[in-house]
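Quick sanity check, RNA polymerase sigma factor:
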Amino acid sequence: MDDHQIIEDFKNPTTRNKAFNVLLERYQQRIYWHIRKILIDHDDTDDVVQEVFIKVFKNLDGFREASQLYTWIYRIATNEALTFLKKRQRKQAWSIDDVNHDLENKLTSGSYIDGDEIQVKLQKAILTLPEKQKLVFNMKYFDDMKYEEISEIIGTSVGGLKANYHLAVKKIEEYLAQD
């Protein structure tokens, strides 16, 4: 079943649940890992993923198919993850540095990475990036998304995204070269 068929079946009350289950099966894991790279913490990620798919369910009837379904879902996921971080920052009266420090602590104390020391260092390097560079790097490097797709998700020009990605790579290389 392609995305267009999922949307059509979702609009039909008799096939709505089946279509949504297909959508979940297709996109839930990808969305989970996209959000997990932003939030680091598994429990926080689960909460936000749930919110994302509640929003998708509530708004899928109005989806106009001007963009691809997964870019629309990624946009919702990105916005929900960033909103979650901003709420935490306001609630805790933290600076963005405090939020990044908290994420780094979760990174090193949690089960986010089972791999070697270089993976942990890479994730720490990513946490030092400004928000937009972090998003662009994660979507391009880990999700292997095209610049055009990322542009639809975060609303930045392709040229701006390429510049952000290039700067992110340079900063990560510099961070990894330390020690």
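Posting the structure with no commentary besides this: DSSP finds nine helices and no strands in the chain.
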